[in-house]
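Standup, Tuesday
Yesterday: got the pipeline producing structure tokens again.
Today: sanity-check two examples.
Blockers: none.

Example 1:
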Amino acid sequence: MHVLFLTDNFPPEVNAPASRTFEHCREWVKAGHTVTVVTCAPNFPKGKVFDGYRNKLWQTETVEGIRVIRVWSYITANEGFLRRVLDYQSYMLSAIVASVFVRKVDLIIGTSPQFFTACAAYVVSRYKFRPYIFELRDLWPESIKAVGAMKNERAIRFLEWIEMFLYRKAAKVVSVTRSFKDILVRRGIDGGKIEVITNGVDISQFKPRPKDPELTAKLGMTGKFVAGYIGTHGLAHGLETLLEAAERLRGQDFVFLFLGDGARKEALKQMAAEKKLDNVVFIDSVSKADVARYWSLLDVSVIHLKKTDLFTTVIPSKLFESMGMGLPVLHGVEGESADIVREEGAGIPFEPENADELCAALQRLKSNPAELDEFRARCLKGAQNYDRTNLALRMMKILENTVARR
């Protein structure tokens, strides 16, 4: 089977879509299948092309057996809605053209969060006369409405029409949450064509390790209880709540580590400076190989999204990475992901945007080492249920069955 996978994020980018796509494709290649990925020059989230790459019409490489074709796109920082849409659309057009030159394809996959990649997958499936699968990672445009990035009702209705069209035309929709599947079924999509493959963790990479002594000393964290947020600093994440908690816990041997980039990063740094928060450390994104070193610094992982109904349907992928590292989670997201935290005993859910509850949870774990150790053990046990290799093989069976039915 030859899978053509369209995605605008791929390593060396280190965000969740890039990691999921790479780790799935790697397992499919190991199983004997051929995989071609059409993506763009790595640039997320700063909108700057990574060293060693150029934003040109066509460049190829092989990554652990995966053929990777990188195409030109309009590159911009992860800020400004219209510029981001131009970014998405330019990749869509380049991917459609580039896919013409990929021969003997059996199946096309287009992955969100934004659905212009799925638009490209649909077009390619039409001219290649092959089925396409919509991998649903986010409800878009619903998510841009939730953060207030778009308010033109006519434009939103048009995007929603395209969204529903793409669901109907897909041979399969592979959703990352059960909640997304339930929503699509209520909107009239046949539940029989929707499969759920959650995000997971590469437990060979994300596993317990002692605190890195060099980084601990360098960042002034020796003897501190470290709460960390690792991921995108975007409009949806509401990280101001973590800064409020840091302000209230100042002088109590807590340190808050923020690692990553995003549209709100500079504003958050400015806010911390204005509040003179000496217990907050900001680190820019690091390579995937170095991420685990920074995870090791944490005593607890903080996951947070704004308080809105849409985010009750999402499962942040960093939840599984935290579990794989054996790090208890303070989980400021309601809904399906909070249910996982409770079911696995992986940490303490708290109300989104409630700094008081976050502070109380931090103080509770800092003062109760036995409970902290219990959460660590439960995290490691629960991570086995979300082993990325097993999830990739489950999705591979869906792809194989789809091709067989054709």
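Example 2:
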Amino acid sequence: MSTTDIVVLHRRYVDLAGRFKSAWTFHQFLQGLQKFFAEVEIGRYPSDFQEIHGTLKSIADNLNGGDPQRMIRDLDIVERQLGQMTAILTAADGRVTPPLLRQFFDRVKNFDEQILAQMVRFYLGPLGEGAIHPDRQDKLDFLVTKLSEEVDRVTGSFVLRDRTRLRELYQGFWSMLPGVSIEPEMLSTRKSEVELFRQELGGLGNFEELTGSGFVQRFRDFKHLLGRYLFHPEILMTIVEANVAVKNRVRQYYRVEEQRILEESHKILQEGSDTPGAGLDSGVIELRQAVEQFERKQQRDNVKLDDLALLRRQVEELAPVLAARKRRAGAVEGADGAAFDLPDGAGGETVALPGSIETRSPHYQEIVDVLGASDERATPKAVALSRDVYHLRLEPREVVAFRRVEVEQIADTELERFLLDAAALRLRINHEAGQITELLDESSVTKDAPIFERARATTRVADVVVQRFSSFIDAAVQESSFGEAQQLQLLRMRLIRDYSGLWLLVNRPNQN
């Protein structure tokens, strides 16, 4: 076998080995996706990588001295099998939306550069000559950016990794698109267009300007129009730089706006409808539904700018209606929020003051008793979903709080005890809401019944507890514990959802 023949076979082997590695990585990604998102149905597909791997290993062992005709046949077999496998994996990828891919890599932390690079190579491999589907373009855009960024330990912002290494990677991606070339004039124009987006981003001073301008969608559409040219190393570098700048700006504005909007949403859900008036009650219900949907998306790590913008629009529509009705009714704002004891005759329970948590209500004790009997070796999520605990509707973070207070007995338990109290408060809210719902079926019942007085006191307690959540969330953000802040925000929104439902039951005007 001549040297030329060896070189040709070696190049073909290297190409097929690379394709095999990217296909195997993508297969592993699909397996992980189904593990972390049980609700996702990728479907079953044959995954006989072992046979392909064995053939490639045999070729590698005999590359320099084996029968060339046999190796050519073996390479033909591998190429055919890889083509079939890639087609199967690509079909399975049709069920993987760009948001789902982002959620997976945002949730899974133990991956390295090679995993992301192999994912990019898999998506680039079967592009062919047609246009790149927008979803595939979005996935590639995300993966390349994820591959290129790291968190600055001082500022907490995202920055680019070593540019020399990135250029090597980008050049490798570009080489996977043979026959695609770009004229110098076009290259310069495209880079200038990206720079104009960067300049526009710098002029957007707040969340409202960012969302109202449609900047994010317009930049995304521009990247779709670039198609394969996006992967030219020079263009890709400018695109990734812009992506990182957008990501930092969105995170900065989002945190501020989320806190503001949720505070205002909470205020409207609390005050809602003090006097009868058309329009506001249905608006409050719609706002509550929007908060519930936002909470569900937070649980899936799938919150988008549009979700927060929707909450903002609803708040902006309801706020002036509420203010006008309060003026007409002569309402005066300013509940003191200092009394946490329930009124006499309401059952004798006491909800703890923030910073002085000593609650031992029946609901709190139920949580302690049930979790005390759970398996300490099981994960918090497994405990929360277990048969004996599920009815409490606890979150894994609340299981962690119980273990830190009752099992580990750590020194600083202020936050952990607060979370257990808030969980107990949710149980009481739902218990009282159920009692009121049953009573409302009786025509003789009025809102002067003791249960209504008790429930009104509970909503006042919940209002202060919600405010207390904000201080813990702010502390977590200041410590750059964004994962902890998100978990606390989820618990806060669950409390808002439940107590707003109780508030509507006890404050809705009589219909007769």
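Quick observation on example 2: Residues 362-507 form one domain. The chain has 19 helices and two strands.
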